[in-house]
Amino acid sequence: MATEIEWAAILKQYGNKCAVCRLSEKKLGGLDQAHLKARSKGGSQVLPMCPNCHQRFDKILFTQSECKKIGIDYRDYVKGRYAPRKSRPRKEEGWSLW
Q: Whole-structure pTM over 0.90, yes or no?
């Protein structure tokens, strides 16, 4: 999660618009902080995305041109290298859910 100051700078960099579809924050009522998992250790990159684009990104539904817009490699994206990790159900102590 980016700090308020970092988020304000990121929004300004993208003109207060979704990095993918370019709809404005004003029109949408707000933008999500989409996290692109970093290839190296040390965190993630945060981009402003509308809720629709953010959901599509997380579900690995972007096209090659959409990946190009945000500067990521499509082949790595479809392999799940940029999307957040899916949470796994926890094992109850003493019991196996599998």
A: no
